[in-house]
Specification:
Elements lengths: L4 E6 L3 H12 L5 E6 L2 H9 L13 E4 L8 H9 L9 E5 L4 H9 L4 E4 L4 H18 L14
Parallel strand pairs: 1-2, 1-3, 3-4, 4-5
Helix pairs in contact: 1-5, 2-3
Length: about 150
């Protein structure tokens, strides 16, 4: 049995999280999904509590919303890109913003991709399936063991 891919959804909108989770669960690639509903919880999950040891949790893919309370998505991305343990983890921005300034800032901060959430449900599912297929079926990355329990 192969180990499922570990996906972390960082998004404060429960409806979007539910739809993203459902889209990821469909299809042929098995993945374990964890959720962080704000930037602070995401950073604690990824980096550990301030002053504590780093956690063993390391996702294979992060789907990150830009507009979140407490710590915005770009700040989460920047924190990941300055951490040697997290800098190679692919981070795909999955957001409603199609603003050119947001796209430029995301890539300048180290985003691996930028997807504008389509309004239409079918288009959203297709977009997420394409992201999932790309990162888990096409791209080859070094293996890293993960150890975590589902977080939601």
């Amino acid at each position: 049995m192969t180990t499922p891919f570990e996906v972390l959804i960082i998004d404060d909108e429960p409806g979007d999280v539910g739809l993203t989770r459902l889209a990821l669960e469909q299809g042929g690639v098995k993945c374990h999904i964890s959720v962080a509903h704000d930037g602070i919880f995401a950073l604690e999950l990824l980096k550990g509590p301030l002053g504590g040891p780093p956690p063993s949790y390391l996702p294979d893919l992060v789907l990150l919303d830009l507009n979140m309370p407490r710590v915005p998505g770009l700040e989460v991305l920047k924190a990941m890109r300055t951490d040697p343990r997290l800098m190679a983890v692919p981070v795909v921005i999955l957001t409603t913003s199609a603003a050119e300034s947001d796209i430029k800032r995301a890539y300048a901060s180290g985003a691996s991709g930028y997807v504008v959430k389509p309004i239409e449900l079918r288009a959203l599912f297709e977009s997420i399936q394409i992201v999932k297929d790309y990162w888990f079926n096409i791209v080859r990355r070094p293996h890293h063991p993960t150890a975590c329990a589902e977080t939601a």
